[in-house]
Specification:
The chain is α+β, with helices and mostly antiparallel strands. The chain has 6 helices and 4 strands. It folds into 2 domains: about 80 residues, Rossmann fold (3-Layer(aba) Sandwich), CATH 3.40.50.300; about 55 residues, no CATH class.
Length: about 140
């Protein structure tokens, strides 16, 4: 089995391997981009908003791929505006404000430091950046 076949199977694109990528849905294109990044068996991978604009099922598939890669020891730098996603997937979270890191810690510690047991990572983000547009 080739590395290409292995990676296509990993991202669930084996059955579509012979189709032209221009016919792929957005979710399939996103999985193809991840597959492309995985071909050289990297130790570190950068993913810029990998679930942005995807339907819930495809977004879940992408999150599962990211979680599996992390379990395999791949270091993943993930940018996202979805705080719940960051909370579930990331061991450490950096919150940026105007290009500067204003907080860097585990999701659990950030929530404990900026609220308590009922605090979400979104609450932490808003507290640190002041970006609550509805107040």
């Amino acid at each position: 089995k080739s590395r290409v076949d292995e990676v296509l199977q990993m991202v669930g694109l084996t059955e579509k391997a012979n189709e032209k990528a221009k016919k792929y849905s957005n979710g399939m294109k996103q999985r193809l981009l991840i597959a492309r990044a995985l071909l050289p068996s990297p130790e570190v991978i950068f993913l810029d908003e990998p679930t942005k604009g995807l339907d819930p099922g495809v977004a879940r598939a992408i999150r599962n791929i990211v979680a599996d890669l992390a379990k395999e020891g791949v270091t993943i730098f993930l940018t996202t505006h979805y705080m719940e996603e960051a909370d579930r997937l990331c061991r450490r979270v950096a919150i940026l404000e105007k290009g500067k890191i204003v907080a860097l810690d585990t999701p659990a510690r950030l929530k404990a430091q900026h609220g308590g047991p009922d605090t979400s990572l979104e609450d932490v983000f808003i507290a640190l950046t002041g970006k609550d547009l509805y107040r």
